[in-house]
Each structure stands twice: as C-alpha cells, then as structure tokens.
Amino acid sequence: MTATIINTRTTTSTAVGGLRICYVTMYIDVSASMRVHMKTVETAVRRTLQELADANDSAEDIIYQAKLVTFNDEVHVLNDVYLDPSEVLDLIPEDTFTARSTTNLTAMLQAIDADFSGAARDLHTGDPYP
C-alpha cells in the first residue's frame, strides 16, 4: 500500500488582496492495492478540500489553492492549474476514487518532480511557512 502524499508550498502574493497563497497538491494512490481504503481516502480528501475552502471563506492572512493528482499505472491530473478548493471539489468525477490497476511510482515521482521544476519553480519563492 502506498501512502497518500500531500505536498504544500507557499508564496507571497498581492494578487489576492495581499493575502499569502498556500498551494496544496494532493497526490492520491488509486491503485488496486488501495481498494479496501478508497472510501476512507475519498472521505479524507473531500473533507480536507472542504476545510481549506471554509478557511478561504474567512481568510485574514492566507488562502489556499489546490490541485488533485491521482495515480495508479498512470498519473491523472484533475486540474492543471491551482484552483480554490471548492472548485476542485466540484470537478471530482464519481470514478476518481475507484481503485484499479498497478502502481507506477516512477510516473508519480516524475509528476512530483515536474511540479517542483520548470515553470512551477516560481511558486517556491517567498515565505516558506504558511
């Protein structure tokens, strides 16, 4: 069983009323080995996204933007750009948390590497603490 990985990074931005932005990427293992855990994983992901959306509603210092990536033998990026967590919740198809196939950790690690290199590198500037 592969653990679910949540990656966070922050940057200072004045684009959203001077609030800092915390970018949250959730990498979720949906391979067959996770079959017995999928309902729990789905509940946790949806709850976390809802908590982040609720925090944005009353934000005074920081807002959250989220991206959801699932992986099994392939990597599936739900949203290519960071969105408000409530928007991500609305985009999740019903079959997102259906466990199937094998686990391709190499592809998942390459997706994480891509998030931390190239154009995404600009997200690493600013305050390292949310």
In words, what does this structure look like?
This protein is an alpha+beta fold. 29% of the residues lie in helices and 23% in strands. The protein has three helices and four strands; from the N terminus they run ββαββαα. It has helices at residues 38-57, 85-91, 105-115; strands spanning 5-11, 20-29, 62-71, 75-77. A four-stranded mixed beta sheet has the order 1-2-3-4. Strand 3 and strand 4 form a beta hairpin. Helix 1 packs antiparallel against helix 2. The longest helix has 20 residues, at 38-57.
In short:
With about 130 residues, the chain is α+β, with helices and mostly antiparallel strands.
Could you name the ranges where pLDDT drops below 50 across 5 or more consecutive residues?
Answer: 10-14
The helix count comes to 3
| Total strand segments | 4
Mean pLDDT: 83
Q: Write down the secondary-structure element order.
A: EEHEEHH
**Major beta-sheet overview:** 4 strands, mixed
What does the overall shape look like?
Answer: globular
The largest sheet has its strands arranged as 1-2-3-4
Instruction: Supply the helix-strand structural class.
Output: alpha+beta
**Over all CA atoms, what is the radius of gyration?**
15 Å
Estimate the strand proportion. Answer: 15-25%
Which percent bin holds the helix content?
Answer: 25-40%
Distance between the termini: 30 Å
Essential attributes:
29% helix, globular, 130 residues, alpha+beta
SSE layout:
Elements lengths: L4 E7 L8 E10 L8 H20 L4 E10 L3 E3 L7 H7 L13 H11 L15
Parallel strand pairs: 2-3
Antiparallel strand pairs: 1-2, 3-4
Helix pairs in contact: 1-2
